Amino acid sequence: MVVGDELVAGRGDARAMGWTGRVLARTDSPIPLTAMVLPVPGEDSKQLADRWEPEVMARYSSEADNRLVIGMGSHDLDHGISLIRARLNLANVLDQATRHQMKSFIVGPPPRSDVPAKDLSDLSNAYRDVAERRGVPYVDTYHPLASHDQWQTDMAQPGSYTPQQAGYGLLAWLVLHNGWHHWLGLTA
Hints:
Elements: E1 2-4, H1 6-9, H2 18-25, E2 37-39, H3 45-57, E3 67-71, H4 75-78, H5 83-99, E4 103-107, H6 117-133, E5 138-139, H7 142-145, H8 149-154, H9 165-176, H10 180-184
Parallel strand pairs: 1-2, 1-3, 3-4, 4-5
């Protein structure tokens, strides 16, 4: 199950794949993977923490290897959620997932031009710290893309929160090259 904001759904992608579709299309698995993408546009970490469990558990199967991919957006910055609260919200999600014996994988928030770079860097670092303390893979998308030319081009539209095709391709590349296959047990 993949939870998060509109970025996990691929809003703005003309191919309608987003990063999740691109990652799954490039994941060669000997067993079939079924992804259930459960986005809520504009969602912050508090809203995610409140809603993920009932939505995911309604799709949970005792006969499957249930896993949780969390796409952490940056709407906390829009909604005035402190770093301390954002950390706690993510920690609560990860702890609940562990209680359900679900392995988690976190994709951090990418760069935006409409919020201060330091605030977004701090948010990404806070999420990374929570993940590392719990031994959960974390893909930093902010720092690698903050000065990436193609990302900047994709995000050049005023007020744009979501990338276009190239930007989603960059997000997918980061996920695929930062522990995805290992997390799924698909590496030697």
